[in-house]
Each structure stands twice: as C-alpha cells, then as structure tokens.
Amino acid sequence: MIRFRDVLMVSFIAISSLALSPVYADSNAAETITQAEQDLKSAAQSGAVWRLVDKATGAGAVGIDKLLKLAKKKLDEGQDDEAKRLATRVSWAAQLGISQANDQKQAKPYY
Q1: What's the whole-number mean pLDDT along residues 76-102?
Q2: Could you tell me how far CA 62 lies from the centroid of its own chain?
C-alpha cells in the first residue's frame, strides 16, 4: 500500500535534486567540497551516514566520509572535475540520508 506521505517524500526529493543541480553546476570544486562537508556534518548529526559504491573507490561500498576525503585529494592533485563529481555525490547521499532518518523517526511496526 502506497501512502500519500511516501509519494510526497519522493516528490520532495526529486524536486530538491532538480533544484540543487544548477547550484552545483555553477560552483567550482572547492565550493562543492565545502557544501559537501556541511551536508556530511548534518548527516552525521542525524546518524544517517550512507555507504556508496563508486568507480573511484573500487567495487566495495565505502562511507561518504571517505568519498569526501578522496574528493579533497583529487582537488589537491588538480583533478577538479572528479573532485566536484565526488563532492556532489557526497552531498546527494548526505541529504537523502537525512531525509531517510527523518522519515524513520516515527517508524512503527506494521502488522
């Protein structure tokens, strides 16, 4: 059974993703990394730090905190596009993790 609240949450996430895309498109890699750090800090406070599989880290899932460290390393190496891509993924995962944590605060068993 699909609840109206679930439909609203998915719609909110989709709209937020589309709304934030231009912000990340116009920013440079350093600004994107700064935003990702803030998003990761918020996710950590919510207890919602996800793990992701990314081509930059191999086949296994790693925490988004490690992806952020890799983004900083790529920025130092001069690979701005890769650093920005990784930082954008970190922000995306952090925001969705926070959203998931907020949704599950009132979770109850369903019988």
Answers
A1: 94
A2: 13
Q: Is 63 helix (H, G, I), strand (E, B) or coil?
A: strand
Dihedral (Cα; 37, 43, 44, 49), 10-degree rounding: -100
H-helix or E-strand spanning residue 3: none
> Which of left, alpha, beta for 78 (phi over 0: left; psi -120 to 50: alpha)?
left
Read off the pLDDT of residues 14-70 as tens digits, 9 standing for 90 and up. 566 555 555 445 579 999 999 999 999 999 998 889 999 999 988 999 999 999 999
Q: How far apart are CA 36 and CA 65, in angstroms?
A: 10
Predicted structure pTM score: 0.72
Specify whether the CB–CB gap between 15 and 101 falls below 8 A.
no
